[in-house]
Structure prediction request, 146 residues.
Amino acid sequence: MSSIFCCSSPSPYRPAHLSHEAKFDPFIAWAKRSESSPSADSASFFQNPDNPPPYAVQFVRQVNFGAIEAKRYFIPRPKANGGRVEFVEITEQDLIAGNFQKLNSYKNFKCTMHNKFFEVNLYQKDPINRHHWRLNIARPASDIDL
Prediction:
């Protein structure tokens, strides 16, 4: 297990209120208090085509103005106790198999104490006609991002 943020002190970098704010807030709250490792059953979340995850979150951690240290992906899983949303780590291949597409909605965070920069991106299932559906062999983000 590894920590999501480097510590509890990262602050928003150029904050803006977004239309998808309700999706970012639970993830950020969860990430500041959690550690995670990829779920062994992550593919099972995409098995039921009638109940896909509502969205996914990409979390990119990098040295400020430097190399990317990690790209991680999470999907929400509502918790029965108190309605608090928990997140499960999945793989990039799960997103491709689930036909998720990156939205133009992101938030950035910066930790000056550890010289780290964090980018949080949203993904949603691509709205398609199931009759004409086929696996989108999109290039993984690791092949696209520079």
